[in-house]
Amino acid sequence: MLGYVARRLIIAVPVWFGILLIAFVFVHMLPGDPVQMLIDPSQLSGASHEFLAQKRAELGLDKPLPVQWLIWMRNIAEGNLGYSYQQDVPVTHLISQRFGATLLLTLTAVGLAIAVAVPIGVMASLKQNTFVDYIASGVSMLALSIPVFFLGLIAIYIFALQLNVLPSGGEHTLGVPATLWDTIQHLAMPACVLAAVLLGPYVRYVRQSMLDVLRQEYITTARAKGASRYRVVVKHALRNALIPLTAVLAVQVPALLAGTVVIETVFAWPGLGQLVYQSIEGLDYPVILVIVMMSAVLVLICNLLADVLAAVLDPRIRL
Amino acid sequence: MSSDFIEPRAGVEAELIAAAEANAELNAESTSRSPLRIAMRGFMNHRLAMVALAFLIVVALLAIFAPLIAPFDPNAVDISHFRQPPSGTHWLGTDEAGRDVLSRLLYGAQVSLTVGVTAALSAGFIGLALGLLAGFLGGWVDATIMRLTEVVLSFPSLIVIILLVAIVGPSIGSIVLVIALFEWPTGCRIVRQVTRVTKEAGYVTAARSVGVGNFRLMSRHMIGSVTSPLTVIVTLLSAQAILLEAALSFLGLGVNPPQASWGGMLQSAQSLTVLSNYWWLWLPPGVAIGLTVLAINFVGDGLRDAFDPRQEMRGKA
Q1: With CB atoms 3.0 to 4.6 Å apart as the test, which of A163, A299, B241, B256 could cross-link to A254 if both were Cys?
Q2: Do the Cβ atoms of B237 and B183 come closer than 8 Å?
């Protein structure tokens, strides 16, 4: 297995370089001049040509693109991820500030979604082609089809504006020391909406893989030797049925961490998604590049992890 | 895939491949029943899918004939009647510029459907071409194309899509282009897998032995087995594309104003005042997107079941 992991990591290197190169080219193709974005528009006409040129040289934007690319790659190799143009702080600082919020939101949502989806999926598979099954697939289909921002708006309308029980956005109440209860209240809506979106595919996944497993002969054997229904379903079937779900999770989580742009916008949640959106609008090249790079690394690692995990959980798979 | 757009059917890839393999076996065993006819009957029996299809046809007709049906010009500004609640003249009220919401909803359908269909077809076409090449030729072509799918799938798609739209400038064309560029790998992987299986089928070997060339083999003999899984994928992708277009418009990166689009109409609801006081501005377009995507997903499901010969066997078992 170690050999397999090493081989995959070696293959991943060119893929990762490709991603970095494409991201670099894309970012520099954005229309507009990042230097001009730094200057207050009302003073732009007054800003002297020399000042702009000086600022450009400071940021290294006066060099030809290939040179900029090489410098950037060297900095990355040395562990220097650069400074944000807009806020003049290290990119790592900005990202670590936002990462916590996104991590909290994502993990809560994934946890909620699994906690709800697994029982529903198992029920649906045990009662295949009955009323329960139809309701379950109807609900998951609905979750797949409603746009996430619309669901968010409905939630805000009901819980924040009509019932007035939850705050409409933000991570905590401004001007008040943060308390756990306050954070939970702010987290509740975005986490539930994100969980609802994740729920659809999870339910279908659990149901399908339970159906596949329940048809296996070892389930019949387990029943025949007199194992209780609970034991057969939970110990024998569910354990195996969850293997594909772990793979889905491993593949999905990095994308989630890279930013749930839409949800964070709807709920004014100060996470990575908002940061990347603001950076694109403000032409903050270093921030965009680092976020894309980070998520590419995460995706590659998680894909590998998914395969290794599958092999560990299921000894029949050989890498 | 970014969180906001999870692969609609994480498991659909494996299912479709298995179905296509079963189809290939069926083809090899008997020629008495046309697979197309079986599929047609399967789909007709799928009541929900039929209802969904009927709904989609109605939506498409409304979109096509929007200029004839719409009671008002969708872009006609009337400041004296802004944010009017629904009434006899304006069935769904008017927006902040006094434009008729119902008319904008009808014209918005044009945008959503156009983007959905063209983006999904383009993605399907790219996937078909690259998948055929990869599966049929194998070797370094296969390896390169597979690395390419990995690169595309490794991008946090919504972020890069936003980046690309910012580069090329928001318009229907650029949204279609960008969605197609990021949604082809699913189709490509399925086509590749099915091609690899079909390549070994007896009739392909027979064609090859009488001297049929590679291009003709691909374009005539492989297409058949690839069509059904690809149809399902393209259907599901169009649902995906409509959701993406709506999200981009919602973020202000969609079609240019004043052109109406469903996602763009929801953008105004980012303000809490609009959200709490003017429900007719955001509820109708949201429901329209949800129902349309739901209908497409049902049709996709019906097609998948119809194309899957194992469904019939399961029914008998």
Answers
A1: A299
A2: yes
* Chain B residues close to A155, C-beta within 8 Å: none
Nearest-neighbour CA in chain B from A157: distance (Å): 6
Residue B184 buriedness (CB in 10 A; 0-12 / 13-18 / 19+)? buried
CA distances from B267 to A192, A265, B86 (A): 21, 11, 20
Within 8 A of A260 by CB-CB distance, chain B residues are: 2-4
Q: Please, which residues have CB within 8 angstroms of residue B184's CB and are 6 or more apart in sequence? A: B123, B124, B126, B127, B130, B152
CA dist A31 and A141 (Å) reads 39
pTM above 0.90, yes or no: no
Count of alpha carbons within 13 angstroms of residue A234, beta-carbon side: 5
SS3 A87: coil
Which residues have CB under 8 Å from A137's CB, separation 6+?
A: A124, A203, A204, A207
DSSP label at A232? I
Shortest Cα–Cα distance, A161 to chain B (Å): 6
pLDDT of residue B120: 93
Contact B159, A291 (CB under 8 A): yes
| pLDDT tens, residue by residue, A104-124 | 898 899 999 999 988 898 888
Question: HEC string of B122-160?
Answer: HHHHHHHHHHHHHHHHCHHHHHHHHHHHHHHHHCCHHHH
pLDDT digits (tens, 9 = 90+) for A45-88: 666 677 777 777 777 777 788 888 888 888 888 877 788 887 77
B263 contacts A201? CB cut-off 8 A: no
Half-sphere exposure of B92 (CA within 13 A, CB side): 21
